[in-house]
Design goal:
15 strands; alpha/beta; TIM Barrel; 438 residues; 13 helices; three-stranded antiparallel β-sheet; eight-stranded parallel β-sheet
Amino acid sequence: MIMKKILNILIAATILISSCSENKYPHVSKGEFVVNGKPYRFVGVNFWYGAILGSQGEGGDRERLAKELDAMKELGITNLRILVGADGPLDTLSTAYNDSADSDGSPFGQSVRSGVVQPTLQTAPGTYNQDLLDGLDWLMAELGKREMMAVLYLNNTWSWSGGYGQYLSWAHPESHVGTGRYYTDTAADSLFRNHVRFILGRTNRYTGLKYTEDPAIFSWQIGNEPRPLGRNNQQSFIDWIEKTAGLIRNLDPNHMISTGNEGEMGCENNMDIVRAINAIPEISYITIHIWPFNWGWIRSGSVSENLQNAIEQTTKYIDIHLPVAEEYDKPMVIEEFGYPRDGFKFKTGTPTDSRDAYFSHVFNILEKSEQNHAKLAGCNIWAWGGFAVPPLDHDYWFKGDDYTGDPAMEQQGLNSVFMSDKSTIELIKEINMKLKRK
């Protein structure tokens, strides 16, 4: 009898230890995010260049990185969506993109030819820029100190960071292969899978933590805006998402996994594909992106005039995805949404009245979701410009310019939120204070 009691105590202790270990990491319980044992809802930001700032090499600025993170923390921002790193040497990145990537006719697809992220992390298959690996380690250590978290995305549909096109170029250097072929191209995808193994197998040199054991990682994300890239690729796209999620789960039993998909607009306008990729057991939560300008809800000459249309279309877009979240009992995150400045201006100091109204609408939906125990659990603004000083004499990024939230192929300041945007900054702080009090 005594031995049985001892055995039961040991079993109970083992369960308790296991439970504590699981709760160490952000996770989903009963359809909602849980962080440090408490329900978690958030307004965060996209900060794709964070690891570059953490570097001590080209592009690095640790003083600015610390300043940015401290400012975000003060605003209640604890969730940052970050690019692990760009792929490929510069001369191949600029030719990696193929028209098949914008099969939906999105104007964004046309714009990515004009610029690429510099410097790159993976300069050749399995060859890494050590300064940027160090920068990623430094960034994660700094996030951990501040009890902030990162969504780390591992790939990209668009060539502004290499992505599919670069892997195809590496696998087939003598030919120009359309990006729509990626999901069935074993040679190209095997290079990416090796990259996944390398990053997830890393140990942080500053914290000593394995990446698979770092509570500062909110989730691993398969890629930025993965999409079928053509109606003939729908099933191969679904299979690829499932296969990649399975690989990540085998490498890391602790962290959440997300797709990075835009929702209906990133699934050939087919909600069945949205359901299929989010039904995959390894996918922890649902992501959607919302782009009023890229999707034609507003135009460069009607940023303010078409604001109401953007608001109405945004509400509809959120509403068609919430039933999927309910069906699979998973939280949903609007992890990209942006809005240009009034008059389609780019420089700091230009008005943001329409952007503020648009952000307020999204924040109100999030707050009501919290009040009604609905599935919308967070959003990440695209994108954080912070203390960057965008160029005055040119619109697009050139080597040596400050990194803003806008990648190199877009006008610097197009969607960036700077610390000087006082009204927008106050909105972000206000909504995070409300969510924290709940």
